[in-house]
Every structure is written in structure tokens, then in C-alpha cells.
Specification:
By secondary structure, the protein is of the alpha/beta class. The protein is built from 14 helices and 15 strands. A 9-stranded mixed beta sheet has the order 13-12-11-7-10-9-8-14-15. Strands 3-2-1-4-5-6 form a 6-stranded parallel beta sheet, sandwiched between helices. α5 packs parallel to α6 and α6 runs antiparallel to α12.
């Protein structure tokens, strides 16, 4: 029943979504105690942390990929049986013993290897934000629905008891009608630069970098230390700024607890004036308005909501506040969660659990990949959340305000903004060509 890759790609364009799977390409049922063969793409920073966490469960690390050769060799010392690559495309085309893949790359590389793994029947753990663009998030969410692979976005809080308790409180209805929520972060100030422009000059490229593979789907430019390492987050070509870095963590309880759908209006209503065509502002406030009138407020760069909303509680540096007609729920304050005003809720008893408790962020995915219960942070859920939050960047690039047709993924008021819903892929790095899947929309 084996097929050649040419046959696979030809058949992939046959159906409405362009999905086709030969029997050998599907994930097979496994014993819960059977070891996985895992590949890790991006083995420094958070990707390296994911690698070592997953390795604790006794699975086989069979491949390592990174564009930094020194970092790659350093991790190879820990996993001597792993094959090494600087280009994940070569890994997918040349290594057939992989069961599951961890993606811990910069944002602009998330969707491509995740999708390449999924069409091969490989389970995927991908760091947040799940994707670089809103379209890629929809693409992975739809692909998850069509495959039987186990997926999870890297969001440690999603597995915590405190967050799941907060979700149960919201779902219990005791807050009344929830009208708004505020989410705030101290990033990017002190973490990485934003509001910057592309350097015009080039710098000498360190020999350790496979620079072309770092650029990947992004347009080619000469090496410059303004992009590497980690500070890629502040560039639209590679990252998603503070909202991409943090909102998929901090908005999680709100999307889960309230079951948020598509917003109809996204407005960047205040910035510090530092944003450029290449990079988001260092400080901004954005609001997402949903069809039922609910408003989600995002504050970054150490800006916070008004103190009057907190009933005398000191506003923490990072947090979220969910406001209903009967009370408010504060997360990440003096306690993991607390109801406000405190006096009103002094005798409150939290509801009985309605959600399963997790063995831990990474272990939940590993157990699912071994045949256990599916992860609750799968791509159908996390893809939608990522799709919504990165619309904040589109609003900034469009001049501050976009009206959004969610089902059709269309910006309806600023024609030029539609280009930011997806992106142009550099030759050899096209998402659809590498996976053999038709675009979900004609414009993608």
C-alpha cells in the first residue's frame, strides 16, 4: 500500500480540502507503554526545554533540527542516537521512523513543519503562538479535524488546576453576564525591541548559523544581529510581538471559559507611537469586540487596566480580569484566582470539577500520542484562539481598525489588510506545496 511522494501530492489535490491519506500515512493505535520516536525541531530556548521535558518519559529522541550548528551539537551530546539536521524539510523527506514531532522554532516556522508532520501521521506538539498568521492557524485547525494525530499547543497554563478551576467558575454562571475582560502583560519592554525598522546594512554571518534555513518562508535578507537570537519576536516577518508571545497563554482561560467565537471588530486604540511597517509598537492597547457585545481588552508594554476595576486589590504586573454583572474573576493576582469584590465572595465554595485534571502539560500530549485521552489543548481549540489574537497585529498594520468576517477570513473595511491574513512564502517553503494540500480559500 505504499505510495510515492509524487502520487501522494497528486492525490492530495483531489478533495475539497485537498486532503488525502494513504493507509501508511495515518497514525496507528499504540500501547500506552510503547515508546514514541520523537523529533525535535528547534532545540534551543523553549524548544530545548520541551525536548528535555518530553525526554523524561523514556521515549526515543531520533532526530534534532536547528539552524544553530553549535546548539545542535550541544544537544546531540545528550541524545547521541538522534540524527542531526539544519533543515527540517530534509528530515521529513529522509527519515521514516518518526512517530511524533516537537516544534520549538521562531513563529514563522511553526505551521509548515507541524502540517508536514500531520500529513505523515505524526503527532505534533507546537509551541505558542500556534502559527505566524491567522490563515495558518485556521489551516492547522482544519487539518487536525481531518487527521487522527494527537496535537497540542505549548501552553503550560492550560494543564494547570488553577486555570481549569477558573474555567469551571466561568462556566458555572456565577459571574452573571460576562461583559468584558482585560488581559495585560509587561512584555515586550525589557525583553526584546519593538517599533524598529529593518537594518539597511549587512553584518558578517556567524559560521554556526544556517541563515537561509532560519529565513525559511520569509523573504531573503542578509544576516544581521538585529534578528537573532530571540529578538526575532519583535519583527513581523519572523514573530508576532507581545500579543503572539503572551496572549495564547493569558487569554486561554477566557476563550475556554466563555467559548469565544469570531470577533467582529478589532481596534488598536492606543499606542506609544513606536510601531513601524516592520514591527509592532512597544506599548499598545487593543480591543476585540464580539457579536454579542463582549469586549476583550489587551494591554501590553506594562500598560494596565484602570485600577478602579480591581476593588482595592493591587494590579499585578501581568494578569487577566473577567468582569460580569454579578462579580469579577482575577487571575494571577495575590492568589491563582480570586473573586471580586472580596467581601461579597468570602464564603464562596468553588464548584465541583467538571474538567479532567492534567498529569502535566507535556505528559498530557505524550499520553495522548501513546493512545490515551486526547489533549485538551489540541489544534482545533488552540488554532482558533491563535487566529483571533494575531488579528491584533493585522489591525495595527491596517491603520488601527479592522472589521472581520470570521467564517470567510476576510477583512471587510480595509482591502489592503487582507494581505496580512496570510503571507507570501519564499520559493521552496510554501505551506501548500510542502504538504500537498490545497489552500482553504482562493486568496491564500
Amino acid at each position: 500500500m505504499a505510495t510515492t511522494r509524487r502520487d501522494f501530492l497528486k492525490a492530495a489535490g483531489a478533495s475539497a480540502l485537498g486532503l488525502y491519506f494513504a493507509p501508511t500515512a495515518l497514525a496507528q493505535p499504540r500501547s500506552p507503554n510503547e515508546r514514541l520516536n520523537i523529533a525535535c525541531i528547534g532545540v534551543g530556548g523553549q524548544g530545548g526545554a520541551d525536548l528535555h521535558e518530553v525526554a523524561k518519559f523514556g521515549d526515543n529522541i531520533v532526530a534534532l533540527v536547528d539552524i544553530d550548528r553549535e546548539r545542535l551539537q550541544g544537544q546531540a551530546a545528550n541524545f547521541p542516537n538522534a540524527r542531526l539536521y539544519t533543515d527540517y524539510r530534509m528530515m521529513f523527506h529522509g527519515q521514516e521512523d518518526i512517530d511524533a514531532v516537537i516544534v520549538g522554532t521562531p513563529d514563522h516556522h511553526h505551521a509548515i513543519p507541524a502540517a508536514m508532520a500531520m500529513v505523515r501521521g505524526q503527532h505534533v506538539y507546537c509551541e505558542k503562538p500556534l502559527t505566524h498568521t491567522a490563515y495558518e492557524a485556521r489551516f492547522l485547525a482544519e487539518l487536525h479535524k481531518k487527521t487522527n494525530v494527537q496535537t497540542q499547543m505549548g501552553n503550560q497554563g492550560h494543564a494547570s488546576d488553577a486555570l481549569r478551576e477558573a474555567v469551571e467558575i466561568m462556566q458555572s454562571g456565577i459571574l452573571g453576564k460576562v461583559t468584558e475582560a482585560h488581559v495585560w502583560t509587561d512584555r515586550p519592554v525589557g525583553w526584546w525591541p519593538q517599533g524598529v525598522t529593518k537594518p539597511k546594512e549587512a553584518e558578517e554571518q556567524p559560521l554556526k548559523y544556517s541563515w537561509d534555513n532560519f529565513l525559511g518562508p520569509a523573504s531573503w535578507r542578509p544576516f544581521h544581529s538585529a534578528y537573532q537570537p530571540f529578538i526575532w519576536r519583535g519583527w513581523y516577518d519572523f514573530g508576532t510581538g507581545a500579543i503572539g508571545d503572551i496572549a495564547c497563554h493569558s487569554c486561554d482561560s477566557i476563550f475556554w471559559g466563555l467559548g469565544l467565537g469570531h470577533p467582529k471588530l478589532i481596534e488598536v486604540y492606543e499606542t506609544d507611537g513606536t510601531g513601524t511597517v516592520d514591527s509592532p509598537p512597544e506599548r499598545s492597547r487593543t480591543r476585540f469586540t464580539f457579536p454579542d457585545g463582549f469586549v476583550l481588552h489587551w494591554h501590553d508594554g506594562r500598560w494596565k487596566p484602570d485600577e478602579s476595576l480591581f476593588h482595592g486589590i493591587a494590579v499585578p504586573a501581568n494578569g487577566k480580569l473577567i468582569i460580569g454583572t454579578e462579580g469579577s474573576l482575577l487571575l494571577d493576582g495575590p492568589k491563582p484566582w480570586m473573586l471580586l469584590p472580596e467581601a461579597k465572595w468570602a464564603s464562596y465554595v468553588k464548584p465541583a470539577p467538571t474538567l479532567p485534571r492534567s498529569p502535566g502539560n507535556h505528559e498530557e500530549w505524550v499520553r495522548a500520542a501513546r493512545g490515551g485521552e486526547p489533549s485538551l489543548g489540541h489544534f482545533s481549540y488552540s488554532g482558533h484562539m491563535t487566529e483571533v489574537v494575531v488579528l491584533g497585529n493585522i489591525a495595527h498594520r491596517a491603520g488601527g481598525k479592522i472589521e472581520w468576517d470570521g467564517p470567510n477570513m476576510r477583512v471587510t473595511n480595509v482591502r489592503s489588510a487582507q494581505q496580512y491574513v496570510s503571507k507570501h512564502y519564499r520559493k521552496g517553503w510554501d505551506l501548500h506545496e510542502l504538504t500537498g494540500i490545497k489552500p482553504l480559500f482562493p486568496w491564500a
